[in-house]
Structure formats: structure tokens, C-alpha cells
Amino acid sequence: MMSEKATAARRGGIPRLRGEAIALLSYGFRPFFLGAAVWACAAMALWIGLLSGTWIFASSYGAIAWHAHEFLFGYVSAVMTGFLLTAIPNWTGRFPLQGTPLLALFLLWLAGRVAMLLTDRIGIEAAAAIDCVYLLTLTAVIVREIVAGKNWRNLRVTILVGLVAFANIVFQTEVLLRGAPDYGLRLGCAAIVALIMVVGGRIVPSFTNNWLARQQSDKLPIPLSRFDIITIAIAAAALVSWIVAPDWRGTAVLLAVAAIAQAARLGRWAGERTWHEPILLILHLGYAFVPLGFLTLALSILWPEVMPPSGALHAWTTGAMGTMTLAVMTRATLGHTGRDVMSTPATTVIYVAILAAALARVAAPLLPGIYYATLIVAALGWIIAFGTFVIVYGPMLLRPKAQ
Predict the structure, then answer these.
(1) Based on the domain organization, do 168 and 247 belong to the same domain?
(2) pTM of the full predicted structure?
(3) 257 Cβ neighbours under 8 A, 6+ residues apart
(4) Block means of pLDDT (10 residues each) for the chain, length 403 residues?
(5) Quick check: is 192 in a domain?
(6) With contact defined as beta carbons under 8 Å apart, do 47 and 67 qualify?
(7) Whole-angstrom Cα distance, residue 360 to residue 357?
């Protein structure tokens, strides 16, 4: 890391107040990981209440649309923010966003969550406008940091974040004009899956390589090569086809090819050597839901009566997004708060719970006899995973870095 004086010189000014007096505002991962986990639990509980008729809200917006939006653009965007605001300073050598600016950005995210809960009172238009401000602001912040740090290599990440922000606008516009999102939902999912492929393609083999090298393993992950670029290009073509023509059989073929390519890519990372280190194994298991999602969506086009599209999509949303985000949140929290990056029994509970939630949600449409029971298992697994994260990792996020 650069010294404060050197970083200030690159900024062209005097060092800013670093915001370290309040631990929660000292680094982006702290408020956003904690907020994301709390919201993941709360949003799931609210969703269960909506389905059961225990309470009513967002009736003008649509319960299903609210559920999809708040997990995709509410929860996932918070984890994405925490990760990027923590990674970008390492990429650029600049100070992290801290103190008041970080608090302001977090409050923008929180305002979006409150607005989406109050659509029946303030109107869909006002709620959508408040919600969209956050991701647009985040994109601007990230662009500023990447450009100021001349870190051109990571502009592709900025483009994908911008796509998530644009997808949110499309999602909200479709709800306003048509009452239900289609393109916005698919574009948002595709952009986040692309982020997982790009970022996951860096961190999974990198962390695995470092650990296996310390174990003196005779097998290490294959370094990034043209093969990875080709597999991402195939996946990108499949995602574009799915966004534009989700029912076309040609899209199913592209999705199936992408599933095979992504599975092959994952197989090059020596994941089978990590089975006795849960905090590393979970990265491989989480990424495995990426090719599984391509496969289930292909099946939903060819045999929708067997695999409904909504069930297929949850391989990505509950599976890839839920599992990969928790894998990153646990690992980053331990490492950046000065603790050993290793699994504890509580952390293993988190991983088992989120995997159970993901597998149950994907399997639910295939088990019509116990469909609702399987959904309950998925919901409980989700709440246990994120509830445990809040209980175990929340204090780490609130306290200063361990010495």
C-alpha cells in the first residue's frame, strides 16, 4: 500500500480525514456488508409475510417485482459496493472512501430500501427515482476512482457496474409502464453473473493457488489464459441472447454451450484439492452455480414443464449470487479486520445453510409434491446463513481492526 503522503501527492492535495475514528466508516466493506446481511434477512422475512398474507405492502408495485428487485438491486448491489470500495484502493493505490462520503453513499442505498417499502404511500414514481439514484452515484464514484488512479485494466468492472445501474432503471421503467419487469430483470441478472465470472475468475484461482502453494500441492490452478477469455465470450453471447430472446431454442443451445465452457473453466482451478478448507471450498461451490444456472435456463427453454424459468433463474440468484457473496463477505471481513482467514464452526454453518437454501430453491419446481415445504427450507436456510453472519461477523465490522 502507498504511504499517506504519496497517496496525497497523487490526489494533488492534502490528505483527507480518513474516517478511522468510527470503525464502521473506515472502509466500504464494513457498512455495506453489514447492511446487506441485515437486509437479506429482513427482506426474506418480509417476503414470507407477503406470501402468507401476514402484511401487505408494495401492492401497487407488485409483490413478485418487489421481491426480485430487493434481492437483485438491493442486497446484491450492497455486497457489490462493499467489495469494490475495498478492492479499488488496492487496484489504484488511492485512499478508500471513508467517513462522511462513505456514510452518504450508504444512506443513499438505505433510502432506496425504505422508498421501495413505501411505494404504496409515496408512489412508484417517487420510489423508483429515489432507488435509482444510488446505483448511478456508485457508478460515478467507481469511474472517478478508476480514472483518477489510471487503472485502465479494471474499466471493464466499471462497465458492468454501469450495466447494473442501467438494468435497475429499465426494471423500474417496466414496472411503471407495464406492471412487471422482463428485460430489466434479465439484464440485471446477466450483468451480475458477468461480474461474478470476471471477478470470480480472478479471486477463486488466486486464493486457491496461494493456499495450495503453502500446502506444497503438486497441482495448482491453471493461470488466466485465452481459454478463460473464450469461455467468458461464449457466456456473454449466451447472456445477450437470453436477454433479447429468452424463449428461442437457439438461446438454449448457447446457454448449454456456455454451461459446458464455464464448468470446464471451473475444473481448471483445482477445487477438488480444497475440500478440507471450507472458506476456500465455498468459492468453488459458489462459482459452480454459474454453469448450473446456464444449464437450468437452457432446460427451462427446452422443457419448461419440467424446469420452469423462475426456478431455473434461482440457480443464479440464490445459488451463485447468494453463495459467492457470502463467501466473499466472510473472507474479506476476516482478512480486512486483522483476523486469520480460516473457517470456524459458525462460518461453516453459514456455508451449509446458504448451500441448502440454494439447492432447495433450485429443486423446488422439480418436487411438486413437496414444493412449498422445499421453499420453506430454502427460506430458512437463507435466513440462518445471513442471520449467523450478522451475529458472528457483525461485531467484527463494528469494531476497529484487530492488532
Answers:
(1) no
(2) 0.92
(3) 234, 238
(4) 37 42 90 98 96 91 96 97 94 90 97 97 96 97 91 88 97 94 96 96 95 92 94 98 97 98 97 94 98 97 90 94 97 94 94 97 91 94 98 96 80
(5) no
(6) yes
(7) 5
